[in-house]
Amino acid sequence: xxxxxIEFWNDNPRLRSRVVMTLVAGMVLLAAxxxxxxxxxxxxxxxxxxxxxxxxxxQLQAELFxxxxxxxxxxxxxxxxxxxxxxxxxxxxxVQPVMQLSFAWPEGTRQEITSIRDTxxxxxxxxxxxxxxxxxxxxxxxxxxxxxxxVRPNLQKLTLLVHELQSLDADEKRHDLVRTFRSLAATVGIxxxxxxxxxxxxxxxxxxxxxxxxxxxxxxxSLEVKVVERTRQIQEQKELLQRILAASPVGVAMxxxxxxxxxxxxxRMKQSLGVKGANSLLALRNYLVDPAVVDRLAGALARNETxxxxxxxxxxxxxxxxxxxxxxxxxxxxxxxxxxxxYDISARKTLENRLRSLAQQDSLTGVLNHGSFRESLxxxxxDCQANARELSLVLLDIDHFxxxxxxxxxAVGDQALKxxxxxxxxxxxxxxxxxxxxxxEFGIVMDGVGRAEALLIAERLRQSVDSPAETxxxxxxxxxxxxxVLDGADTAASLMLRADAALYQAKRNGRNTVEFSGRDEAGxxxxxxxxxxx
Length: 534
What we know:
Number of strands: 11
Oligomer: single chain
Number of helices: 16
Shape: elongated
Strand order of the largest sheet: 7-8-6-9-10-11
Largest sheet: 6 strands, mixed
Distance between the termini: 100 Å
Strand content: 15-25%
Mean pLDDT: 80
């Protein structure tokens, strides 16, 4: 039985070819599917929402520490109730980002987070409803301070748990990507073996055809028959080559090296360059945007070198597009000819730009995310310091944003953030940097803007936010703003700290106001001044 199968296999070369080609096509399809899977995993890893998830619990922990300091100060002195109001409001806004973290929490963790949120809400109610009696108020806040000490260890454990879960999530994604790459490598290896098998079959077929040709030559006694047969074979090969090049999905053309006369051009090249026929095709250099690329290509061809997959910008029929060009000199019937291929990679460039944009933008508002904003601030700061230019940083925060979320829902809260960004973009220059630092907090970097102009711009922004359009369905809201101006000794961190101090002062002074923080002889480093009569 096995012998009959082997004999049938050997006697049917077409069947062998079809089976092998079917297997190779299947492996190519499998490799394409796996490559698509790899690209999908890479895109998921590059999403803006894969940023540092440990930031919300760290912010919550920091605000709890600041609130505890304010509590202790009030218990000791009995003064500065507005400071407690501002601190407990800021603390309450830091809970929601923690609850929105999409982890597979261990059993009981989400209940603990909910308990922390309820506790903080209760503190806020107690702080906002302090009795008028100083002693009674201090006693009430002393009890809250004792509760803070009980909450602090749970919050520290939560922060450590978020770090651990984020690390496990990142490890799992990397392992998935490695497994997919290994599977793709195995598929490519098998595909290589299949290609080798095809080459062996083609080689054996070539040997058989060569043997038949030699027998035919031995039987042909007439030189005329041999010449006619050889001429026919050459003509068939030329026609076959022309059909292959004409049907190629890649643009192909051949031009005389000296006279630039077009020898051949396929339909894809005509469509890409917008030419009607061979006679209207200009020399290749007329379609390349970058003169340096033209010089490089001409030099390589003059030295009889081969150009492979050179990325170029091409003037096409519908405007410039990106492509890969390959070119080489060949001898065609005794004359030097340049054969070049042009492959349109505009779709790939668009995908690269989209991935780069996703890695830098905030997914909700479209402005710079926290990491990209800090990098851009550092770059602008160094450039301004090197060139002795002024630079201003504005931090702003929506007042009572938690109230908007609680009363109208998070969808309206998200729309409020988008509405704020629209107002800021309308008022700011194109060169100004705008980023979302987390939650409802945003930052603005203004290159070449000093203190006076920065304060005027900030006040104009505040008034624009405080004056919503009459037709808007959004609930009205205001913003508090802190302004800091670059000092010679500043770093990005110190500038952010001073702007944050000014924002905190604006919150303490009743919100919906602009405060400035700078270095001066009266206030010292980090001094905050109240802005009036702008």
